[in-house]
Automatic annotation (TrEMBL):
Family that this chain belongs to: Belongs to the vitamin-B12 dependent methionine synthase family.
Superkingdom to which the source organism belongs: Bacteria
Protein known as: B12-dependent methionine synthase
Key word Acetylation present: no
Keyword Metal-binding assigned: yes
Phylogenetic classification of the source organism: Bacteria, Pseudomonadati, Pseudomonadota, Gammaproteobacteria, Enterobacterales
GO MF assignments: metal ion binding; methionine synthase activity
Enzyme Commission identifier(s): 2.1.1.13
Keywords, comma-separated and alphabetical: Cobalt, Metal-binding, Methyltransferase, S-adenosyl-L-methionine, Transferase
GO-annotated biological processes: homocysteine metabolic process; methylation; tetrahydrofolate metabolic process
Signal peptide feature range: none
Amino acid sequence: MSSKVEQLRAQLNERILVLDGGMGTMIQSYRLHEEDFRGERFADWPCDLKGNNDLLVLSKRR
């Protein structure tokens, strides 16, 4: 096992770690449209939803 993995495990045993990544950038690569963000649940929502990536867990479930 690499020393970096060992260091990570040691830190996990002692504290809460927050891992952050470029998820929004990855989602943008799919070139989703307004309809993708709306789905059935938000079909009649009164404002634009495109770019609200958090909604995708509700509107674009797979």
